[in-house]
Amino acid sequence: MKVAVKDYKGKDTGRKAELSDDVFKIEPNEHAIYLDVKQYLAHQRQGTHKSKERAEIVGSTRKIKKQKGTGTARAGSIKSPIFKGGGRIFGPRPKDYTQKLNKNVKRLARRSALSLKSKENGIVVLEDFTFEQPRTKDFIEVLKALGLENKKSLFVLGDINNNVYLSSRNLAGSEVITNSELSTYKILNANSVVFLEGALEAIESNLKK
């Protein structure tokens, strides 16, 4: 499939980018998308949650009252979970939430997400550009020119470009990444995915493997 290449001012350059049908025009596999998004969200969890259990509470170990004759239940330690300040029963412990997913499934999921975005006309190809210095106003002008000012957008660069990245960092609705950071979740979370020409070849070669 062919997509018109625009410049950063939103004007048509007169050129067209050839997008591989094997990446941008396949039958989407919804289950692969589900698995990849599920893994991505799971990996955002730190898993550092922890509460102190009975054995970890610092407190006196003396028996707080006699065993019999009080008319109430026996109690051996102030650290018991039934008392205020005692340990927590079955409290959360540190846990690793990472999930394993086959590379081929991840590639299929990304191709499926790109194909869905392509069907929605959410793929934009932009010629490579940069800024002389980081400036949020300059990036906002690019968004206005592309009609993405009030929409979620994902810009995919071929290489690291600090001036473009820093210019977008304060904008909640836009994200700038390199081709190696592209994920199924980020593709689906954006209304439009803007590829710079320098990123296309690397993405297609990686997803065709």
Automatic annotation (TrEMBL):
The answer on whether this UniProt entry bears the keyword NADP reads no
Q: Name one Pfam family in it.
A: Ribosomal_L4
SUPFAM superfamilies from the entry?
Answer: Ribosomal protein L4 (SSF52166)
Q: Does the keyword RNA-binding apply?
A: yes
Name the InterPro entries on file: Ribosomal_uL4, Ribosomal_uL4-like, Ribosomal_uL4_dom_sf
Q: Which GO terms describe its cellular component?
A: ribosome
Tell me the keywords, alphabetical order: Ribonucleoprotein, Ribosomal protein, RNA-binding, rRNA-binding
- Coiled-coil segments: none
Q: Where is this region: Disordered?
A: 46-77
UniProt record similarity statement: Belongs to the universal ribosomal protein uL4 family.
According to the record's subunit comment, the protein's assembly and interactions are: Part of the 50S ribosomal subunit.
Q: What HAMAP family does its record include?
A: Ribosomal_uL4_B
What's this chain's function? One of the primary rRNA binding proteins, this protein initially binds near the 5'-end of the 23S rRNA. It is important during the early stages of 50S assembly. It makes multiple contacts with different domains of the 23S rRNA in the assembled 50S subunit and ribosome. Forms part of the polypeptide exit tunnel.
The identity of this protein, by name, is Large ribosomal subunit protein uL4
